[in-house]
Amino acid sequence: MASNREISITNKKITIRDGVETLYEKTVTPFGNSAKVDVPRKFIGKRVYVIVLKS
Predict the structure, then answer these.
(1) 19 torsion bin: left (phi>0), alpha (psi -120 to 50), beta (else)
(2) pTM above 0.85, yes or no
């Protein structure tokens, strides 16, 4: 499988080129001794990126 994946960070801006289906901005919430980000069930099994931004 050939990959056309491109991720670049310049001047504190990120560019992702990788067949993006959608983009969500969510807040990480507590989950037991860990944390989670909720997304719709339709994305179960999909490959995702998690990018943590500085506050």
Answers:
(1) left
(2) no
> Cα angle vertex 20, ends 44, 9, to 5°?
115
Give CA separation, 42 vs 19, 36, 39, 51, in Å: 17, 17, 8, 20
Nearest to 38 by CA among 54, 55, 25, 47: 25
Q: Where are the beta strands (DSSP E) in the chain?
A: 6-10, 13-17, 29-31, 34-36
Q: Are 43 and 37 in contact (CB under 8 A)?
A: no
Domain layout of the chain by residue ranges: 1-55
pLDDT tens digits along 6-43: 889 898 888 888 888 888 889 999 999 999 999 999 99
DSSP for residue 18: S
